């Protein structure tokens, strides 16, 4: 290969894709390489939920949050395994990342009000609204590219064909209003 790049990103999951997109936006000559025959990695078959304390959509959900509470929660679960400065950086910048992805790239996330923290009873834990899921996109806009994405597991789809997001899954499994 006789090309030169400022940044070479290995792996086309959410981490690699986001890094490559942001590097390219900064004007860096960027290439993303993927070792498998499909892009998307584990991210493409995951639930797609991201943990964003103090996110911009929280106020409409009835939940409140603060950096201090989020930090208390993380610190309680993680202890000293991760430096305090990194935890603080995450808490401060997670919501900025969501904003940036929406404003710059039209990659949008929606708050999931009924998705609790995994340890809601621990100090700083919440019963909902810190998780966000990707907004639905029209796959037709991806054209042929759609078929090069790692497909979701059939067992996570209705009849092995119909995808559902986390809000729909909750409605279905809890048989709450509108589940049919
Ligand atoms: C069923 C399921 C549901 C999940 N749900 C959630 C959820 O809701 N929320 C959450 O936070 N997490 C969830 N997870 C975990 C989450 O999906 C992963 O932690 C996350 O996707 C990892 O992202 P990534 O970008 O680091 O890596 P990946 O998405 O795995 O991407 C890595 C990519 O790198 C490629 N690669 C590896 N080595 C090389 C190489 N040497 N050269 C080039 N390419 C390479 C791989 O082929 C792959 O495409 C879930 C996981 C599973 C399996």
Layout of SSEs?
Blueprint: E1 7-10, H1 14-25, E2 30-33, H2 41-45, E3 50-51, H3 67-78, H4 84-105, E4 109-111, E5 131-134, H5 166-173
Helix pairs in contact: 3-4
Bound molecules: flavin-adenine dinucleotide.
Describe the 3D structure:
- With 180 residues, the chain is an alpha+beta fold.
- The chain has two domains: 1-47, no CATH class; 49-149, no CATH class.
- 33% of the residues lie in helices and 9% in strands.
- It contains five helices and five strands.
- It has helices spanning 14-25, 41-45, 67-78, 84-105, 166-173, and strands at residues 7-10, 30-33, 50-51, 109-111, 131-134.
- Strands 3-5-4 form a three-stranded antiparallel beta sheet, covered by helices on one side. Strands 1-2 form a two-stranded parallel ribbon.
- β1, α1 (14-25) and β2 form a beta-alpha-beta unit.
- α3 (67-78) crosses α4.
- The protein is globular and about 55 Å long.
- It starts with 6 loop residues before the first strand and ends in a 7-residue tail after the last helix.
- The model has no long low-confidence stretch (mean pLDDT 95).
- Bound molecules: flavin-adenine dinucleotide.
- Flavin-adenine dinucleotide binds next to α1 and α2.
- The site of flavin-adenine dinucleotide has 20 residues, from α1 and α2.
Strand portion: 5-15%
Strand arrangement within the widest β-sheet reads: 3-5-4
The gyration radius over C-alpha positions equals 18 Å
Shape: globular
How many domains make up the coordinates? 2
Helical proportion, percent range: 25-40%
Could you tell me which ligands this complex binds, including any ions or cofactors?
flavin-adenine dinucleotide
Instruction: Give the number of DSSP strands.
Output: 5
